[in-house]
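Can anyone check this?
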Amino acid sequence: MTAKERRANPAVLTHNATVRLTTAAILMAMNIALCSFGIPVPGGHLYLCDAVICLAAILLNPFEAFVVGGIGAFLGDLIFYPLPMFVSLVTHGLQAVAISLIAHHVWKSRPRLASGIGVSVGAVIMVVGYTLGKTFVYSTWETAVAKLPYEIAQGVLGAVLGMVLCWSFGLRKVFQRISGEQDNN
């Protein structure tokens, strides 16, 4: 069935919308859950929510990615650590949108490369966003810079895990199969 035939068939559109909504809801719940705890490292914590945000952004469109990344991180912080919740909304929201736009609109013939570029740009957005955001939240540049190595490690870890989950574990193929999307590779 071609893309035009799928759009013309209301049953296919309803199925696709249900799959996308369910996928976004599950990934958002995972993002909220992973915001609740971090891996303790000397001087701070590493949070795994970036892996879910990267995965969601590669799979979903920019709006859905923003909901999972930005609103999911906002709700996770609201529940567990409210001080940086607006920083998380903006930073993870922009991160997810940038990754999704790059993964879906750059080098359509090479989706793995586009995803890799997207998560790299997303990691930079996350590091810069949290460093600037923490400057305002904690009112000192020194505190934000002291947390910079942890932000970089979290961004890299999230990007790598998101790519591994999507491509090595085959979650992109599973998502395409159940949502009825075309495979580009």
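Reply from J.R.: I decoded it. The chain has a mean pLDDT of 89.
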